[in-house]
């Protein structure tokens, strides 16, 4: 491979047939070198070749394998952290963390539920969540208690924001409530399984006794708020579920239905004590809050509040 060639995390994920979070974990541990260009992580082709070759099994090279393991332990960087979630506020948080602490944030743009499972598996350090529970009408904590079993953690509020329907300009089909999804004259676009928007939709369908099998377009999945809003804007769908900010960016109308609490969860370990302190300081700082407030469409009245903490 050419020395000038490099790949994005997404491209390497497709080449190796592994998840992006697995690759972020390898980068975090120092096993796979990477560099950043703006927000994007890239991996040199030569470094990818070296990594692949180091993983090839050879029955007669036990000493080499031992040396590789020693090299991995030596190069592991505890200050590489993965922040998972899609909201642009997480990019701002990463910027503040990098400026005010020794940590080097990497970004994973993965949905809430899948990110939480990855945290359980040790692949994420900060996970953002907006998971609605229809039984308790609460956000995030019911899911955390079920998934992060055996772990100690802290749950901090990042912000609150509106979620609802993306509809075409003027809302020609007059879609105003979850029950409207049961109409036969509409086609929706959905989010991928494991995303907070998908969980919100499925919980609301259950509460309103609507069968997903009866909804035209339920199986049409997109992987971000922006792509859902764009599908509505282009006429591929009549309605989609997402957050207000994306509607304004794409240029579709927005029908607010809920105010969702968008939180951060961090595992409590001796190694993460400094990280938790840095995040708490950033969230409570007037400068950070003012920058988030200036973006519009975000409620920062609880930003930095400890929602829940295990001891």
TrEMBL record:
Source organism of the structure: Neobacillus paridis
Residue ranges occupied by any Helix-turn-helix domain in the UniProt entry: 7-55
Classification via NCBIfam families: excise
Superkingdom as given in the UniProt entry: Bacteria
Protein name, per record: Helix-turn-helix transcriptional regulator
Domain (PBP): residue spans on this chain: 98-283
């Amino acid at each position: 491979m050419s020395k000038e060639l490099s790949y994005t995390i997404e491209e390497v994920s497709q080449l190796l047939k592994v998840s992006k979070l697995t690759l972020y974990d390898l980068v975090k541990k120092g096993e796979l070198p990477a560099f950043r260009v703006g927000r994007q992580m890239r991996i040199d082709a030569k470094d990818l070749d070296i990594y692949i070759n180091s993983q090839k099994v050879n029955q007669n090279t036990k000493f080499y394998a031992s040396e590789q393991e020693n090299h991995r332990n030596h190069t592991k960087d505890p200050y590489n952290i993965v922040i998972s979630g899609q909201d642009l506020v997480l990019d701002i948080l990463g910027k503040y963390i990098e400026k005010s602490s020794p940590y080097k944030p990497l970004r994973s743009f993965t949905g809430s539920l899948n990110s939480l499972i990855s945290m359980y598996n040790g692949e994420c350090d900060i996970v953002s969540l907006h998971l609605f529970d229809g039984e308790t009408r609460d956000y995030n904590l019911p899911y955390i208690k079920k998934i992060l079993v055996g772990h100690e953690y802290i749950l901090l509020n990042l912000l609150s924001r509106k979620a609802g329907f993306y509809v075409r300009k003027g809302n020609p089909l007059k879609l105003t409530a979850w029950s409207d999804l049961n109409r036969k004259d509409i086609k929706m676009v959905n989010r991928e399984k494991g995303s907070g928007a998908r969980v919100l939709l499925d919980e609301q369908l259950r509460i309103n006794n609507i069968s997903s099998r009866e909804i035209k377009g339920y199986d049409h999945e997109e992987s971000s708020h922006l792509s859902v809003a764009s599908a509505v804007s282009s006429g591929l769908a009549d309605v989609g579920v997402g957050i207000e900010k994306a509607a304004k960016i794409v240029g579709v109308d927005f029908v607010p239905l809920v105010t969702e609490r968008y939180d951060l969860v961090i595992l409590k370990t001796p190694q993460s004590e400094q990280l938790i302190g840095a995040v708490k300081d950033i969230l409570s700082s007037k400068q950070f809050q003012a920058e988030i407030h200036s973006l519009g469409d975000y409620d920062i009245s609880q930003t930095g509040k400890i929602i829940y903490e295990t001891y």
